[in-house]
Design brief:
heterodimer; A: five-stranded mixed β-sheet; five-stranded mixed β-sheet; 2 helices; B: Chemotaxis protein chec; seven-stranded antiparallel β-sheet; 6 helices; 7 strands
């Protein structure tokens, strides 16, 4: 068994099998995993906001879907992954509180998911699986050995996508 | 746009925030004591600007199941406030309010959840009135929204809102109760930078 590397909020990391990547308690944030099945290399980003260009305070590139995914891509390529073999799996983007319908904060989970998908498309990385939206938090673990993304939530059976 | 940067908040500003926290916790204690019809003590709250990544750790880890009650601030100052209760504290409060001895978080009925929501509302309102008194501003908030989930997931909501302006959040940890029932609560205030400025300037600090 390898080590499980923790990715914090607004953070990203990469690893090679048998190591794995995890992020705990994803709420409205989105966890994006990039995977090269041959090199068994993976990257994970835990992004909080959709777009770095909309925000004044944007020094932390791991915080945003656009810059965070780009950086994760650069890091997995540096580790030896091949871009043509990369696929993506994403999870998170929940709506933790049932706000009134005209509230902007209502949409942040959805917006994070949409921005992540858009960025993946822009970078030409195929999205193969997702577990997004709804109203509960998720803990995710990604295993580059087999490409499994294991998702656990409070009071629910764990799920592999 | 605001000129204030959170990094530049100095010790006088911080003392003011501390004092507001103190009074807020005092109000909350009185309210809780009336609600539960019991003597409730208060410890001096611990107030800190924390990095987001440390926030969840301070509340027992990202996967720790907690109760989060969130209100948005509408008039006066913009922002959000959140009250977080440890799950065993939430159980204690509801049990004592409902006059029973058992019942855990996952067995809570609609009625229990609604009671919990109201408690959050009262406690948040106590802090709000402290800010309001200090600044002479009328501040109103939304109805409370409740969520029971992993601390990390619940905290992501204020973290995202705050993340637009800074990597740190203002956290006030308070402890209420007597020897037998200690209630641990965390209060997180997320005003916009403009709101911070408004608070400080109405206190004559800017």
């Amino acid at each position: 068994m390898g080590t499980v590397i923790k990715v914090g909020m607004a953070d990203l990391n990469v690893c090679k099998a048998p190591d794995a990547l995890t992020t705990l308690g994803l709420g409205s944030c989105v966890g994006i995993c990039l995977w090269d099945s041959v090199a068994k290399i993976a990257g994970m980003a835990h992004v909080m906001l959709p777009d770095s260009t909309q925000i004044r305070n944007n020094d932390n590139i791991a915080k945003f879907a656009d810059t965070g995914i780009k950086e994760t891509l650069d890091r997995v390529l540096k580790l030896g992954a091949q871009k043509s073999r990369l696929v993506a799996k994403i999870a998170g983007g929940a709506q933790m509180f049932a706000f009134g319908s005209n509230n902007d904060m209502l949409r942040v989970g959805d917006r994070n998911v949409a921005a992540s998908k858009e960025m993946l498309k822009k970078l030409g990385i195929r999205l193969v699986a997702e577990d997004t939206g709804l109203n509960f938090g998720r803990t995710i673990v990604f295993y580059p050995e087999n490409g499994n993304l294991v998702i656990t939530a409070v009071g629910k059976p764990s799920k592999t996508i | 746009m605001s000129d204030l940067r959170l990094e530049e908040i100095n010790s006088i500003h911080f003392d003011v925030l501390k004092e507001i926290a103190n009074i807020g916790a005092g109000n909350a204690t009185t309210a809780l004591s009336k609600l539960l019809d019991a003597k409730v003590d208060m410890h001096v709250p611990n107030i800190e600007f924390m990095e987001f990544k440390d926030l969840a750790e301070a509340i027992g880890g990202a996967e720790n199941v907690v109760v989060g009650i969130l209100l948005t601030l509408d008039t006066g100052i913009d922002g959000m406030m959140m009250f977080i209760l440890e799950s065993d504290s939430a159980e204690k409060i509801v049990n004592s309010l409902m006059g029973r001895t058992c019942g855990s978080l996952d067995e809570f009925s609609e009625m229990d959840l609604s009671a919990l929501q109201e408690i959050g509302n009262i406690i948040a309102g106590s802090y709000l009135s402290a800010i309001s008194t200090f600044t002479n501003m009328t501040i109103t908030s939304s109805v409370p929204y409740l969520s029971i989930d992993m601390a990390g997931a619940i905290l992501s909501v204020p973290a995202i809102e705050f993340g637009k302006i800074s990597d740190k959040a203002l956290m006030i940890e308070s402890e209420f109760g007597d020897k037998d029932t200690i209630i641990n609560g965390y209060f997180i205030l997320i005003p916009t930078l403009e709101a911070f400025e408004l608070i400080f300037s109405s206190l004559g600090l800017m």
